[in-house]
Design a protein that fits this description.
CATH architecture of the largest domain: 3-Layer(aba) Sandwich
Strand content: 5-15%
Distance between the termini: 120 Å
Structural class: alpha/beta
Order of helices and strands: HHEHEHHHEEEEHEHHEHEEEHHEEEEH
CATH topology of the largest domain: Alkaline Phosphatase, subunit A
Radius of gyration: 26 Å
Number of strands: 15
CATH superfamily of the largest domain: Alkaline Phosphatase, subunit A
Largest sheet: 11 strands, mixed
Shape: globular
Number of domains: 2
Helix content: 25-40%
Number of helices: 13
Length: 496
């Protein structure tokens, strides 16, 4: 056997004619390239791919696998049987932009600056100083892609603020906030900085198709990949494919047909993507997590004034939890959460262990072996112990603050089964034991004064630390201040 780099090989090489030497150089170069390619492929096979699939305004009770008796979600129900269903999964906020920022950074929203939902054109954005999981994975050799809703800047597709490509994504097709004019035939998507123009179809499937096209034609297949798929469904303005509404034709209420059809539309898109992973032989090597950004919009009740109104289509279910979108009660923040990771997560399992959106960042870092940034507070914890049936080890508690919640219930913190909720000025507090009262019906502060004092102090201290950490954009924003309370009536002057 001839080894070109051995001492014997070097002696032989000197006696080769020039043409032979050239051939040897080419052979050596090709061999090295092949070896490098094989090594990269082996490394990619050892490191899992990641898919973070995020629904918009999907309630905790909106899926068949979470107990809904009417909405048909066969693909997600199947997915739940293939992985771990988390019954106490939380978003990091009860509105969209903050919860999304936390998924990407592992930091609670008031720390990373995305403290509120971001209006089109506003100054708020996910700052370039924030380190996203997409950026960390890209630096580790991952191919990265984002498709669907973005909603992490006010000046979308503008050089004035960071765009998805500035936060670590090689490829992206997104909207600033909602699909417009509705989920049907949207016109406001942008791909890699270029407006896409009018599209035909419904948003969730269009988003899934873009992800599939990237997997098939645009990603570097020698690299593992990180893919975020964030649908608009079932956020307003809802518009559902008639074939999915047909499944609910027995419902007299058009709002029910639209909403339930919209969730099935979302489920169909999810199923298409999972089928593509399977057909490409990627399902066994891909970590997939499905969740939602917050609880359901609206009251959930009919809108009799105008049954055709979009407001009549906000018919999501909290599964019996108190509160809805914008609330710090569990109906606003507890969401579906399902993880599938073949060989690592036992199929058909469930857990009551509380998890939160910021945990996604830390979990992915832990899986890949990337240290989380040490120059800032990371609120998320790794879920890896959970996959082995153990408790999650947390340095930071589960915590929420939302300026759109009612003033008495704006801030909350959970520790074990205990949850304390406080007012914006930290003068009013309530205590709930979620193990005994999962619907948060009874304030037990007076019944457990020692625990109440402990939890209240934790909330006050933690809230102060969070507010002191991030940018103070919220301090001078009129939306951060609650609506003015009516002035107390002046006492009538005594008559003489």
């Amino acid at each position: 056997m001839f080894f070109p780099n051995s001492q014997q090989g070097r002696l032989r090489r000197r006696r080769l004619p020039s043409l032979g030497r050239l051939f040897l150089v080419v052979l050596t170069f090709v061999g090295a390239a092949v070896a490098d390619s094989v090594a990269r492929a082996d490394e990619a096979n050892e490191r899992p791919n990641f898919v973070v699939f995020l629904a918009d305004d999907l309630g905790w009770g909106d899926l068949g696998c979470y107990g809904h008796e009417k909405i048909q979600t066969p693909n997600l129900d199947k997915f739940a049987k293939q992985g771990l269903r988390m019954t106490q999964c939380y978003s990091a906020c009860s509105v969209c932009s903050p919860s999304r920022s936390s998924i990407l950074t592992g930091r609670t929203p008031y720390r990373n600056g995305v403290w509120r939902w971001i209006p089109d054109g506003s100054k708020y954005h996910l700052r370039p100083s924030e380190i996203t999981v997409a950026k960390l994975l890209k630096d580790q050799g991952y191919a990265t892609c984002h498709v669907g809703k973005w909603h992490l800047n006010g000046k979308f597709n503008s050089s004035e603020q960071p765009q998805p490509g500035d936060h670590g994504y090689d490829w992206w097709m997104a909207t600033q906030n909602n699909a417009a004019p509705t989920h049907k035939n949207p016109t406001n998507f942008v791909r890699n900085g270029e407006p896409v123009g009018p599209l035909e179809g419904f948003s969730a499937e269009l988003v899934a198709d873009e992800a599939i096209d990237w997997l098939q034609h645009h990603r570097d297949k020698e690299k593992p990949f990180f893919l975020t798929v964030w649908t608009h469904e079932p956020h307003l303005p809802i518009e559902s494919n008639p074939k999915f509404m047909e499944l609910y034709k027995d419902a007299d209420d058009p709002g029910i047909r639209q909403h339930h059809g919209n969730v099935t539309q979302l489920d169909h898109a999810f199923g298409k993507l999972m089928k593509e992973l399977e057909e490409q032989g990627l399902d066994e090597s891909t970590f997939v997590i499905f969740t939602s950004d917050n609880g359901p919009e609206g009251s959930g009740e009919p809108f009799p004034k105008n049954p055709q109104s979009q407001r009549n289509r906000t018919r999501g279910s909290t599964g019996g939890l108190r509160g809805r979108k914008r609330s710090t009660f569990d109906g606003g923040i507890r969401v579906p959460g399902i993880v599938r990771w073949p060989g690592k997560v036992k199929p058909g399992t469930e857990t009551k262990e509380p998890v939160i959106g910021s945990d996604i960042f830390t979990t992915i870092c832990d899986i890949v072996g990337v240290p989380v940034p040490s120059d800032r507070t990371i609120d998320g914890a790794s879920m890896l112990p959970l996959f082995e049936g153990n408790q999650i080890e947390r340095e930071q508690p589960l915590y929420w603050r939302n300026h759109l919640s009612d003033d008495k219930h704006m801030v909350a913190l959970r520790d074990g089964d205990w949850k304390v909720i406080g007012s914006s000025d930290m003068t009013h507090f309530e205590l709930y034991n979620l193990a005994d009262d999962w619907q948060e019906t009874a304030d037990v502060a007076k019944k457990f004064p020692v625990k109440f004092a402990e939890m209240k102090r934790k909330l006050i201290d933690h809230d102060a630390a969070v507010l002191a950490d991030g940018p103070d954009w919220w301090k001078n924003d009129p939306h951060a201040r609650k609506r003015k309370q009516p002035k107390p009536k002046k006492k009538a002057k005594p008559t003489t």
